UniProtKB/TrEMBL annotation:
<keyword id="KW-0720">Serine protease</keyword>
<keyword id="KW-0645">Protease</keyword>
<dbReference type="Pfam" id="PF00082">
    <property type="entry name" value="Peptidase_S8"/>
</dbReference>
<dbReference type="InterPro" id="IPR023828">
    <property type="entry name" value="Peptidase_S8_Ser-AS"/>
</dbReference>
<feature type="domain" description="P/Homo B">
    <location>
        <begin position="474"/>
        <end position="613"/>
    </location>
</feature>
<dbReference type="InterPro" id="IPR008979">
    <property type="entry name" value="Galactose-bd-like_sf"/>
</dbReference>
<keyword id="KW-0865">Zymogen</keyword>
<keyword id="KW-0732">Signal</keyword>
<dbReference type="InterPro" id="IPR022398">
    <property type="entry name" value="Peptidase_S8_His-AS"/>
</dbReference>
<dbReference type="GO" id="GO:0004252">
    <property type="term" value="F:serine-type endopeptidase activity"/>
</dbReference>
<feature type="region of interest" description="Disordered">
    <location>
        <begin position="189"/>
        <end position="221"/>
    </location>
</feature>
<feature type="active site" description="Charge relay system">
    <location>
        <position position="399"/>
    </location>
</feature>
<comment type="similarity">
    <text>Belongs to the peptidase S8 family.</text>
</comment>
<dbReference type="InterPro" id="IPR015500">
    <property type="entry name" value="Peptidase_S8_subtilisin-rel"/>
</dbReference>
<feature type="compositionally biased region" description="Polar residues">
    <location>
        <begin position="192"/>
        <end position="206"/>
    </location>
</feature>
<feature type="active site" description="Charge relay system">
    <location>
        <position position="221"/>
    </location>
</feature>
<dbReference type="InterPro" id="IPR034182">
    <property type="entry name" value="Kexin/furin"/>
</dbReference>
Amino acid sequence: MASSPSFPLLLFFSPLILLTVHPLHTPPLSPDASALPPPPPSCGPGQSWAVRLHARLNEEGHDMDELAHLVAVDAGLENRGQIGQLAGHYLLCRGAEEEGQRDTRGASAAGQALADHPYVAWHSQELLLSRSKRSVAFNDPKYPKQWHLHNELRAGMDINVTGVWEHNITGAGVTVVVVDDGVQHTLADIQPNYSPEGSYDLNSNDPDPMPHPDARSDNHHGTRCAGEIAAVSNNSFCAVGVAYGSRVAGIRVLDGPLTDSMEAVAFNKHYQVNDVYSCSWGPDDDGRTVDGPHPLGKAALQHGVIAGRRGFGSIFVVASGNGGQYNDNCNYDGYANSIYTVTIGAVDEYGRMPFYAEECASMLAVTFSSGGRSLRSIVTSDWSMQDGTGCTDAHTGTSAAAPLAAGMIALMLQVRACLTWRDVQHIIAYTATQYTDKLANWETNGAGFHHSHQHGFGLLNAWRLVNAAKVWVSVPFLVSYQSPVLKEDRKILAYPDQLVLSWNVTAADLKQSGMKTLEHVSVTVTMAHPHRGNVEVVLHCPSGMSSLIGARRALDSDTSGYMDWTFSTVRCWGERAEGQYSVLITDHTPGEQSKSLGTLNHWKLTLYGSSMSDEEVKQRQSLVKEAMGGQYLNSSFSLPCPPGLDIAPEKVHPLTSNSLKSLLLLGCFALFWSLYYTMEVALAHLDLRELWRGRRSRAPDGFQAVRLEEGPELELQRVVNTDTKVPVIAGDVTAYSDSGKGSPTDSD
Ligand SMILES: [Ca+2]
Ligand SMILES: [Ca+2]
Ligand SMILES: [Ca+2]
Ligand SMILES: [Ca+2]
């Protein structure tokens, strides 16, 4: 604090320093600029007067600066020059020589002199104005540590959300559901925002997704994700969620054996209540698994985007996976590959790709999470069971990234509730930001979108997402084009040679669907190879944009090749659909340059897109760019929203084993009761009544037993017998292992 006494002095003299230094260091731009030094902004509280000179003086041809000087001298003040761009307005200050002798008498004398002065039309002694920065301040003790919301250390390395909150956009009216190992909804940071209507427990088949204590004390995962999304603000407890005004629900499904049918139920659970499904889990990230949703899960994802959210479509957010250290790649993860999901990867607090992060061609965007040992992790809620305290600063992995994206999508849906599931993906592609990271191989596609396998379209930016959402008109409906299954039975050539497959999509091919521009492009392949991790598959779109859809994976020594595995890419987003597509397949098996070890049996190409022309893509790009100033958020601007479909209430499936049992019991009970009642009426006048009363007294017990069997809600039971696992949709299901417990995508 040694410098503190000199600080006010420095401030005081700074105008004089400016006055003398300025001409020396800045060559005058014009004679005018050199004549008048810039006026200092202020001369201390209560020590300045703003005056306006009579306009007629100017009209009479007087030099206003000179007159202002005369006025200042008459009032015992100093002229500090014209105020900004206001002609005839001057700032007059009490002189430096009066420092230390200032008193109110001197001040009032100056005021009186100005009041009496013939040149002065108006004057005012300036008072300090109380103005607060429009920055959000919370009393939550861990908010200062939530760098992903406001990174003071590294500018730009946060989700840029505070400006959105200042516009009172906090996710109000939107429900995000965390599909995970439960949500401890009794926590102070969760309870006020908890949505029991959107919640369910599929592991215990009851409506309450409360996590269960477990041997490893790790069923904290869902609660941590829920806190990132909707932790309550300003409650003096722990942290703040990205969408702290949204509601958060929980579907408990990861704490026990997971089946395809359970997954299917989870993806559509309460889908008129839940808007966004946050899924921070997926197949094993071991660098050799090729798996994704099975037939029922796939059907449920598809049904969710058609019927969820009154037909606008459920938004499924999935984490790209944590297998980075095993060379894993999210193109081998069917949840990430799916066109129905928003695939989100992670970057650390520097924006760099962390060791655990997976990359792929279907990555839509990235957001923040943990990094190396010395880097900060995500501060969020925690369960308070077992070792938990209700608050943690150690949430990690792509698990922590996906909920941040889900929260940002909730903010978008508040400003525009009728965004479809595809609008959300489009807006992410249009607004995610590109930046420098040495691991990112950015490429700009034919429609002007930048994409990297590591960072998708870039870093999610809440401000940009919400401003674009505000002006976004829904894209035309989804259309697709599928090539025939192309039988090849060709040898996969060894590096540096390659097997080249191509398919030309003509204008006539697209005429029926009306597709003009692309969204996802998928390639489904069946190939035989003794070590499939050595095979590399690259797709070239007509523009020449390349996607590494099948990356090499050193640990994947599987000998069965691929059975109808669908790889997908978002890298041709917005490009023209028409033209020639090529698939380049290379065998990188070391030392086998001369041999052909594998065979490509057959493949097909699927294009997804819409009738949007490339002109319209450009128009939307400039509209989004134009909206980034925030002018639409500031104004009362709003686009009309269609009402959405009237979707029938969720079907309760009557023919599950549990419900059949209940029905049977209910039937038996009804039969018994009617028999009893008939007999009682018949025997009413007989003396045997006492005997029957004895039986009747047990009836309430019987009744209660039936009530318990009925339960509060009949659920689709998980199918235990695998023989009954009938695919409800035909077609491409990859060779899959029996689904075990999905792995939460923590990095630890
Ligand atoms: Ca429960
Ligand atoms: Ca809080
Ligand atoms: Ca993975
Ligand atoms: Ca996806």
